[in-house]
Each structure stands twice: as structure tokens, then as C-alpha cells.
Amino acid sequence: MVLPRDNKAQVAVSIGRKIRALRQRLNRTLDEVAKTAGISKPFLSQVERGQSTPSITSLVGIARSLGVTVQYFVGTPTEDRSVRRANDLQYFGFDGSANLFGRLTNLSVGSKLEVILVRMPVGQNPSEVTTHAGEEFLYVVSGHVRIACR
């Protein structure tokens, strides 16, 4: 499939941004990644800035160097891969908690948001299971929730 020129530029920028973001998150230098990927540092820099599009061979080398698959850079998310529908939802629980948890989003490398449906029985006391490091948001479907800081 041949993409129109504007679409090719958008793909190059998208791939470059993903490469740079992952490289920086892993605290790797351009030089380190270029060497282990078997490409030049200036070329990798051009790829990251969306000024060049890597060949499949170069992209495979970059992916290997960063510890991911090529799919990480070119995979197009689909609703099927990113969201779970009610009929696919499986609930799980933890000892010491009456809450039921259902994962609404699929786990994927680099995901920024994980959405979990929590079914809390009326009158349920808070438990350690419901706390974790990170940010949270709450959307109440029915009923009400009282939140108290300790």
C-alpha cells in the first residue's frame, strides 16, 4: 500500500516521536541506541525528528535496541485491542476485600491509562487493596461514595 505524501510525513513523525519518547524513558543516548541498532547517530536523530523514515531493517534494529517489537512503533490501536466490552469482562477479587474488579482496558506496553471497573458492595469499608501509587479518577455510575482522607 502506498500512502499519500502527507500521510507518509505523519507516519514518520509518529514513529519518530515514539522512538524518542521510549529512548528517553529508558535513559538511553542517541549514540547508544544507534550503535546497538546498527545505524548512524545522525540518521537516528533524523528519524526521531520525523525528517527520515527508517527502513524495516532499521526499525527492527531500533526496536531490538530499545527492547520492544516493531509493533510498538507501527501498531495501530484498534477498539478490539484497547477496550473490553461488557460481554468480555471478567471480574476478579482479592482476599480481604468484597470488591470485584474488572479490567476495561487491555494492558499494553507504554499505556498511560489503565481503566478498572470496581464494584463495591453497599457499606463496604475501605481496604488496602484499593490503594496504589499513581493518579486516580472516580466515576460513580450509581449510588454515592464518601471519600475521607486519613
Write the layout of secondary structure elements.
Layout: H1 5-25, H2 30-37, H3 41-48, H4 56-66, H5 71-74, H6 79-82, E1 91-92, E2 100-103, E3 116-119
Antiparallel strand pairs: 1-2, 2-3
Task: Give a summary of the structure in a few sentences.
It contains six helices and three strands; from the N terminus they run ααααααβββ. It has 150 residues and is mainly α. The chain has a three-stranded antiparallel β-sheet, with no helix packed on it.
Features:
disordered N terminus, 7% strand, elongated, 150 residues, 434 Repressor (Amino-terminal Domain), single chain, 2 domains
Describe the fold and architecture.
The chain folds into two domains: 5-74, 434 Repressor (Amino-terminal Domain) (Orthogonal Bundle); 79-130, no CATH class. Helices cover 37% and strands 7% of the residues. The chain has helices at 5-25, 30-37, 41-48, 56-66, 71-74, 79-82; strands at 91-92, 100-103, 116-119. It has a three-stranded antiparallel β-sheet with strand order 1-2-3, with no helix packed on it. A hairpin with a 7-residue loop joins β1 and β2. α2 (30-37) crosses α3 (41-48) and α2 (30-37) packs across α4 (56-66). It starts with a helix and ends in a 31-residue tail after the last strand.
